[in-house]
Amino acid sequence: MNLETVIKEMEQASKEGSIKLAEYSIEDSPSIVDFRNKVKRLALDCQFSRVNSVRLATAVSEVCHNFLSTCDSFNVALFFSRNADLWGIELELNSAVGSVTSMNYDYIFDYFTVETASNHSHKLTAFKRFPNPNFYPKEHVDIQRNKLNQLSQQELMRELEISLEKTKEADVAKGDFLANMSHEIRTPMNAVIGLSELVLKTQLTSKQHDYISKINSAGRALLGIINDILDISKIEAGKMEMESIPFQLDKVFDDLCTIITLKAQEKGLEVIFSTPPELPNSLVGDPLRLGQILTNLCNNAIKFTEQGDIIVKVTNCEQLNEWVKLKFEIKDTGIGLKPEQIQKLFSAFSQADTSTTRKYGGTGLGLSICQNLVHLMNGDIWVESVYQEGSSFIFTAEFGVLDKEIENQQERVYNWKKLKGMKALVVDDNKSARDINQELLNSYSLEISTAVNGFEAIDMVKKAMAEDSPYELVLMDWQMPEMNGIKASEIIKTLDCPPKIILMTAYGREEVVLQASEAKIDGFLVKPVSASALLDTVMEVMGKAVVSDSSSQNNESEALYDSFATVRGAPVLLVEDNEVNQIIAIELLESVGLNVEVANNGKEGVDKALDGKFAIILMDLQMPVMDGLEAARVLREQPTQRELPIIAMTANAMQQDRERCAEAGMNDHIAKPIDTSELYSKLLKWIDPKFKDDNFEFASPQQSDDVADNVAFPELPGIDVEEGLSRVNDDRILFTKLLNSFSKNNQSTFSDLKTSWADKDYSQGEITAHTLKGASASLGAHRLSQVAFTFEQAFKLQDQDISESWNELSSALQQVLESIALIGLQPEVSLVQAQEFDCKVVIALSAEIREQLELGEFEEDSIANLIAMIQGHVKADQIDRLNDAVEIYDSDEALECLDTMLSSLQG
Questions:
Q1: List-wise, which residues carry 4-aspartylphosphate (predicted)?
Q2: What domains are there in the chain, each with its CATH number?
């Protein structure tokens, strides 16, 4: 089009008020995208700003989508138009059918109207004047027509790329949504499971017990599905992180045994572990995820196997000094798989076929999760299967090897040599178990024979005696046809100079243990048996001294301590108001050689952080004076504190709480009650090695003395002692101290909560209930923690309907306090051996302690020794007074108690 034509059109436009630039047919979303881009480019060419061009194009796109939602297609035209003597861009949409919802775009357009004709057709007109009133469009008409009518392939390709990117973002958003929802669902599910378990411990009728048991089982099944969804969503969102912490391989297998044995027993299946003794045991990696893979594959094997056995085998693929690749195989004698089933086996939300889902259930997520976890461990996973004969699921994984593993292997070899040449008999009707145990004992250089039943075993033992080549050891299975292992053992034990007998059973029931004891059986092993457990039992039964393996529990602590070598002495600020939580955290931090300083609230934490130089801050959230979130915000406002790692410690571990922590500037979070492996993993992740202090003096963990190891707790109703001990790395002295501290600090808690409720002091009541919830959870007092949570929420929401809950709180709290009272004395008294009473020694030691107390010093070891000497020679309440004084560092009170006790001794 030449200039003359354009001028004529502009002259005509001046008369009519508009000139048409282009017209399009809109049929789908891509055509709207194309049109939107054209409008945006036109606006930019007409001197609209980039922001206003985008706003205009977006509004046009919304209008088009609105029209398209009511009809199959419509026409749209663009004009240069004049309105009120001002030129601008005009948009005209025409639709023959459909309806137009109410639209209001006055905030974008200078003129906007929708007209509906009698035939129900619609015409929409929108006008936007040029931002520059001096912009005259006559010289732009030809150019714009060419641009607007060009093929928009480039724009479409760019939009497709954007769409692909948005699809990826949508996938991530889906993963985030699933992860968030999983967390939200798990919280009430944990309550359902926990409370149903508590109900099962109460007096119930048989029908009630059956109903609650089914609720508990269904809850656990649902929680397993939720956990699978959580894991697959983490994987899809790219948020699955692997730990890298020291662990013991045999501990993973011990945990696996605990989880799967009962299910196998219920189906009459035998689970067999094949773990060669030469395997490295002290590894570095993610034990939780390794256990998850093994548990999933073993559970599948049990689910799809009706008879036979499940073999879990580990072999060493490749090993260097610093790392090892292990191969794990889970072999079953189940239904097997067809080749076409194997092809889709590792796809998420997929199972072998629909009949499998109907018969066996499941989400189809487990194997997909396993595959992703294996890949994160630099390994591969595959399956070998014969239909109707069984399957083998095999995977490899890489792990680090602890420096002490070479020493550990040397110690194990030294122990094996003590068994060299010993003649032993393996008795088992299961060929797989028989062969594996024979192979294992052969590796210890024993001379091994096998028998398939009790009768054959008796004959072989008698024959060996007659040939003057008797067996020294018999490894006897319990459940065998015709004659069980206990009966066979009883007969063998009647012979002259019988061999030592170790009974192996998949059923660790009390009656079996009792029968074995009555039959004078020398040792007892619960299947599946690991190599280390078998060696230890054989050595013990044969009276061989065992050189302590550095991978024992004590040396596991040393290995953990060694993993903190690069950050030894790093200063850590613990901001926590709860005394029980302080005691736990201090012990856990100091046990790995970190330098701990404590602040009792957020304000104190801020002051100390600004005054000192810390490597990391562990911050509780709910505290008096200033909470953890506010403290974090205050610190982040300081330029010197913006890079300091702050880790939130919270019992509220839901996603919104984590988001609040992140918004306040915190780097990470740790859920309460504190899980030691999570704590140590986060510390190693965030502490910069530059904070290592070579001058920091702290003794590495030593083996606990016999007194501490032998501290036996009575049964404590309301307290899960085993879980409580696990929170403090099985430190019985520390746990006893925590119990006493809890008792001392919660004598008035019930009345305090009553007062807060009556006075409507809801904020203080919420803090008190929150503190009680956290402290009781740390001890393993689940019922009390749950009730405290109910009150925390009631104070938070100011809920008036809690009248029936007061009795529950009183009962739960009183039960825990009475249980703690069963322990009796304070830890220093109960854990120190009683010593012979010598008045002169007591007086001399008292004088030494007096000098220390007068200087304000508390040598707790000296005081503990004194109490051990005078225990039984003074009144118990006098000892209690002294312990209380020492506990709160009251030197005056301690001196007075000391004088009172000495007077009674000398009087």
A1: 477, 620
A2: 3-150 (3.30.565.10), 162-236 (1.10.287.130), 245-406 (3.30.565.10), 423-544 (3.40.50.2300), 564-702 (3.40.50.2300), 707-822 (1.20.120.160), 829-906 (no CATH)
